[in-house]
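Troubleshooting log. The previous structure file for this entry was overwritten by mistake, so regenerating from the original sequence record. Sequence copied from the archived sheet and checked twice against the printout by T.R.
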Amino acid sequence: MRIAFALFAGLLSLGAQAAPADFVSFDRNLWPEQLDSPTLFDVASRAEILSFARVLHESEMLDEQALTARLGLRQVNLPVIRAVRARLWQRLWTSYQQAQQSCEQDASFCYPVESMADLRTQSATFAADVGTFYSDWVEPSHQFHARYLDEQLRKAALFPQTTSEVEKLSGRERNGEELNDRMFLLTFVGGPGPEGSSTDQMTDYLRRQKLDAIFFVLGNRLQQRRDAGLVVPLYAGQCVGIQGWEYRSHAQWQGWQDSLRRSQARVQADLPEQYVPLFRPPYGQRRADGEGFMASQQLRVSLWDIDAQDDGPLSAEASAQRVLTLMLLWRKGVIQFRDSQPKAQPALEWLLQHTAQSGIGWEDCREYGQRE
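Regenerated output below.
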């Protein structure tokens, strides 16, 4: 009986270790104002920054045992967690400084914060002082950010044994932090789909909106589209990077170098005008010793910091609301959608509609792709 119980407990532990990512969004209807001016974008941005800073500060109160239990893991990599926390604090401080620049136009969520220490202190108490106008937003926002932080800390806890987008492996990698304030890059992964699929609809929609994006394609799927017909019209006006020959982790795959060579050659041959020398690793997983090979292929790893999570149970609107909340939080970044998912286009439509007057900008895909 004891042996059976121990085996059962072990299976539970393994299940916790391998638990799938939690899909979390935030209902933007709980925020009482439309983002119809740059000033109101800043108000909402300051609020989300303070809300996330609050849960980040709370997480630092947990000891290793409590943190391990909260993340559902057997053990955690504390040095990486501390490094990720420090980077998150730096981004929050930078973002809050940017968002404060409109405080003369609207003083909501403006506090005498002149240092990162001030931000820590203010985030712990601001929720009690928001007034009735924002009261319905406070607790749901706190819950969203607590779950979002768990996403990040869980990835940090497993890094670098399991690599992900939570941390860069070298200075040659990109993750959106290099963009200017209020600038965002649209990216899509997992395609192309078969002719007439959501990939076709998405690229057509972007052209009609006079927007561009980087589509990270799989070599085998591009080969299938090429065998069925022309691919140049599909990606006209867009940029195309690579995700490898097939959608699988390139961290442990012995054929990862061949995967990159084949997919790179395919895109360069079929789409020379659209090609940009960027690799988006599936699941964010790549090899720590791959720097030399990447450089030899003139490739850079392109990560993301805003994931739409449109490949799970979230509806198109919930996915878009998640993206918008994280745009307000980080104020810049690389957004990842999946063009093979039919919900990606309605999600993007919602996002564009609700940010049309907010003062944000969309990064040119070719400028980003060719940047040294």
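The chain has two domains: 34-158, 183-370. Archived copy saved in two places this time.
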